Amino acid sequence: MRRKLPLSLGGRDRLMNKSRRVVELYLDDSEASREQREVIGKIRRRFPNLNVQEFGLQAPQAFERGIFLAPGLVIDDVILGLGRVVSPGKIRRFMEQREEPDDE
Amino acid sequence: MGFEGIYFDHAATTPVHPEVVEAMLPYLQEGFPNPSSIHAAGRGVREAVNEARERVAGLIRSTPDEIVFASGGTESATMAILGAAFKLESNGKRGHIVTTAIEHPAVLGACQFVEQRGHEVAYVRPNTNVRVEPQAIIEAFQPETFLVTMMYVNNEVGTVQPVREVAQAARERGILMHCDGVQAVGKMPVDVGELGVDLFTFTGHKYGGPKGAGALYIRQGVELTPLCAGGKQERGRRGGTENVPGIVGFGKASQLVSVHLEENVRHVRQLRERLLEQLSNISSTRLNGDPAHTVSHIMSVCLIYVDALLLVLNLSQRGIYLSVGSACASGKLEPSYVLNAAGMSDFASFCSVRFSLGPSNTLEEVATVGKKVAELADLLRKVRRPEEIGQCDENCPCLWAGGTA
Question: What is the pTM of this model?
Answer without folding.
Answer: 0.92
